[in-house]
Serine hydroxymethyltransferase
Amino acid sequence: MNYKNLQQQDKEVYDIIKKEETRQKNELEMIASENYVTQAVMEAMGSILTNKYSEGYPGSRYYGGNQIIDEIEILAIERAKKLFHAEHVNVQPLSGSPANASVYMAFLKPGDKVLGLKLDHGGHLSHGHSVNFSGILYNFVQYEVDSKTGRINMEEVRKIAQKEKPKMIVAGYSAYSREIEWQKFQNIADEIGSYTFADIAHTAGLIAGEQMDNPVPIFDVVSTTTHKTLRGPRGAIIMCKEKHAKKIDKAVFPGMQGGPHDHITAAKAVAFGEALKPEFKEYAKKIIINSKTLAEEFINRGYRIISDGTDNHLIVVDMTSKNTSGKETEKILERIGISVSRSTIPNDPNPPMNPSGVRFGTPAITTRGLGEKEVKQVAGWIDAAITNKEDIGVLNSIKKEVEEMCKKFPVPGLL
Ligand SMILES: *Cc1c(COP(=O)(O)O)cnc(C)c1O
């Protein structure tokens, strides 16, 4: 990336960005929520559209001079509609959590009852955790994954829903590796007259790439971040049925937010354009092949994987099956240049700051071009590092191999 002016004007910031660039180049990114955007997405993000204020929506703004901004917002909306087969799209949400806040605001009053998956079972903070606005403002009741299968048992969800009669049911998760039965959720909601809300922040790219089932034609409302598997700028969108369009738009602005970030809207449009290309389907397919390969490699080496495998881009591994913890694994892998995030496992006996599991994801390494052969090598290195965690010599030599692989598979946006 070219930072000529920044380098001249502000060396302090420039140096920090360059250091992070080097880290991203030389390390393997296996955090399931991260990815590498293209140069084109970054150029749109870095554009002069950041100079504009445009509160409101295309055709009805509270500021003048928005004729051209309207064009970019309409383009982003049209591309998102096509990508997800959506009736209505709002492309203004600043990120995943504020998007979810807008969804709740559109459909609920404070104190209303909502059904969501428990955080330590794979849910997200914004699905009703007590420290998050969602759990503070709304009365969340929670469902869990089955303790034997690690999967969501739809009969259990039905029982809880029938008993609690929530006004809204939330599905779509942060650390769940299996396909979600959207239609069954909708059927349960129809039985008790509640709204359905899908949060596809993690899997949106796999859904756009037609490798996983799409809740958009089924559910009342769907939110997603744009920066995870979808490989766009940091941000979010909300999709809904036409009948809910006014409610959603009002909740985003003026309900939750002020002016939209028009440079990010432009970058969202670029990312949606990329995701509409046939190559993106191939990318989504490869993410899942890599993830399944990684799961198999771990299982063959005696690791316990939650739900014994994966249908998507991530796996959650119970590290106590290898006499270590999530936090310690994160540290060991940092030593060899691989980034992962520690994670709770369902019914985790250990506290959230030092949970039993680690979440591994393949979207970023797949963007880099790693395939099955390389994923097998990476799994071998991870296992060797954990087995030899006290042996500095072994860790250093693995780190060199990781760096060699990184050189062979450069980050596309950092060429
Ligand atoms: C990542 C994520 C979010 C939050 O997105 P931010 O952009 O970090 O606010 C919301 N829901 C789910 C399911 C997520 O995985």
